[in-house]
Predict the structure.
Amino acid sequence: MRLHHYSIHTERTYCDWIKKYVHFHKMKSRKDLAEGEKKIETFLNYLAVQKNVASSTQNQAMNALVFLYKKILKLQLNDEINAIRASKKQNIPVVMTREETARVLSLMKATPQLVAKLLYGSGLRISEAIRLRVQDIDYTLKTITVRSGKGAKDRVTTFPATLIPFFQDHLAKVKIIHSKGDALGG
């Protein structure tokens, strides 16, 4: 999966689905993987009917298993897989109000608060915020260059001007920590 540049999260998820599939069919050897279409269909039906998973979850399992057969085992899936489709669940998203968000952010301090404000104000993913480097921040244009984001793609996003003092404060603290490390020979 790494050779195909899949994210570590996708890798873990696909491995989990493959393990569930193998356990579901009580597979003991590679030859148990034969007749993949029928076995995949049975597993996907089980997920839809017995486990009552969401359609996106069933699709994820299907993608993992197709990846297993086509890319890892190099086996073709020639027959159609006609699994019972999981029903789409209509969930109304729960979104915090601005006031609730402000209250949560006010309870946080230092780096966690900066990261949370960055996620909220710039739409960064947590992994992107944690990998952020000083040179990725353009204070003049108020932009952040996200390197190797989802899909291993770079992108540019904006950040609110209100974050500038938080960035500067954080960088000043980091500079002090590094200067102490240099003084100690580290």
